Amino acid sequence: MTKLFEGLEQNDLARLVAPFVHFDEYESKMGKDEDVSVVSFKITSKPAGVDLVNFIEKGYEFCIDADVSAGELEDGDYLVFVEIERTKDLPKQVMSMMKDIMNLTGQKLKEWKMRIRSDEAEYELTEEKIAELIPLNAEDYRARYGSGKLDEMRTAAGIPVTTKAPKNDRTQSLRALAGIL
Question: Of the candidates 83, 100, 97, 82, which has an alpha carbon nearest to the alpha carbon of residue 13?
């Protein structure tokens, strides 16, 4: 008996994947958010999501992990999560993966948009836009979003994030007591 290996072919996922790529909307399972970017897609069924996950995991060495959501969203769709190391190569890697995904969906690049975190703004999906809008290393991530939940809440609320305490009499006395002056 021989095994039958069926892979995805051109247009197999036509009309099943929403033309939006979300960056850093969800937390990483495989590392710290500052080190790993979570790229996500919305897909209409769990079996199609499993197929896409298998396609991504087998096709891209840069993919740390891929998974489909355990449950469905309110609208009945599912999410596919792809975790990729946050490096200068991230924009090129994502666009390489997207070229193949578009082959599976029959969609054109001009149809796709991207969103970042919880921001509702939509951006053109290009390698240049990804490089411009997505932090490509841990230091840039921390500078943009902070390193703690409080900083994330401040960012979401539109409040400026300050990672250093101001210098005044109170903070200077605390620094002196802590021995960090």
Answer: 100
The number of residues making up the chain comes to 181
SS3 of 5, please? Answer: coil
Angle between helices 46-59 and 90-105 (to 10 degrees): 130
* Segments making up each domain of the chain, as ranges: 20-145
pLDDT tens readout for residues 16-74 = 999 999 999 999 999 999 999 999 999 999 999 999 999 999 999 999 999 999 999 99
pTM of the model: 0.77
Per DSSP, what are the bridge partners of residue 67?
A: 81
Q: CATH number for 20-145: choose from 3.60.21, 1.10.150, 3.20.20, 3.30.1360.
A: 3.30.1360
